[in-house]
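1st attempt posting a full record on here, be nice pls
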Amino acid sequence: MKPLLRAVLILDALLLLAFGLLFLLTPWTSLYNALLLVQTQPALVGQGFGVALIGLAWLALHASIDGSLTSTVAKVVGHVNWLTGVLMLVWLLGLHTPALTGFGQIIAVLAGVVLLVVGLGGVRLSGAVRRREKVRLVEAAAAERAEKQAAKDAAKDSANKRDSGRATAAFPAYRAEPVVVEPVMPVTQPVSPVSAAPLHPAVDEPGLTASERAARAEAATARDDARNAAADAPGAPRPPFHG
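the predicted structure (as tokens):
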């Protein structure tokens, strides 16, 4: 859309230049008589207005080349053009002033219509271009902020990696060695021959006489006494304590 606005600015520059030269030649009476136009009185006012229009034409041409001035100058020139066209139509059609012949009036009305259409078109195009430029600037600012945030995140990640690398170098990682489980052998306690003997041998075996039972009981009692005496002797092995 901006190239179209540049083309409109070039057209504005040509129109402003033509009107500026026409007003600059206000003292040329024969030219105005040939074009069936009314001369501006005094001629100094016409020439001053012509210089102003030529300067505005140069500004429009410069804005069509310089992109930073395109939308602003197009807006200003557009407003000047359509306001000028409205004034021409009001004076020519409404007030019938100045009094022109048929051909001269047609030319003046067509010039007013052209200025009105071109001016309004330039204003609309300049507004659309300005809105697009604002959206583009906002997107560019958002992209720049995103790039800065990404750069900060990348720098933070690299700093964290460097810190973790330094910590690893200062404190090497502990590697657990495999634990070898040795088989546990059951502890067996030697049994003394004294404790291996039954405390109370069986004396009530079938087929024994009463005398034999009494003899065996006396022998068992003697063995018990001997075992108790051996256990009470100093230095004798003691059985483990069972709670």
